[in-house]
Write a structure and sequence with these properties.
- The chain has 130 residues and is mainly α.
- It folds into two domains: 65 residues, no CATH class; 45 residues.
- Helices cover 69% and strands 0% of the residues.
- The chain contains six helices and no strands.
- α1 runs antiparallel to α2.
- It is globular.
- The mean pLDDT is 88.
């Protein structure tokens, strides 16, 4: 159960995530997969109507339903996510962060995030190991 005072916050976060995902449809360096899944997560906790609309959406619906049912994400989305995440983490660690501790913390986060995406099954029914 979502606390009533959290619903507007989740709704706002869902709208922001959906907006980023929508922009990502048209701009190649902006991600689409993660923000759309995140929007579905936030809408599930804030607005049944928006969650249903997103899950039944002709473009995103099957993708979200597969992920929520534990069937994973399409191979193309997985590869794109891995490439973009690797580029972003490499840039952050190599050129943005100056302090060794912040670089080490970012490297730990990168390993965890990339490992999570690698372990996700592919929605075509195959796991990462197949």
């Amino acid at each position: 159960m979502t606390k009533p005072w959290m619903r507007p916050i989740y709704l706002l976060l869902g709208m922001v995530a959906l907006s980023v995902g929508a922009v990502g449809l048209f701009l190649p360096l902006i991600p689409t997969t993660g923000p759309i899944l995140l929007a579905a997560f936030f809408f599930a906790r804030s607005s049944e109507r928006l969650h249903r609309w997103l899950v039944e959406h002709p473009r995103f619906g099957e993708f979200i339903a597969d992920f929520q049912a534990g069937r994973g994400i399409p191979l193309r989305a997985k590869v794109t996510a891995l490439v973009m995440m690797t580029a972003a983490f490499t840039y952050s660690i190599g050129w943005v962060l100056d302090h060794p501790a912040s670089r080490a913390a970012m490297a730990v986060i990168a390993v965890g995030a990339l490992g999570y995406v690698l372990r996700l099954p592919r929605s075509d029914g195959r796991t990462a190991e197949q």
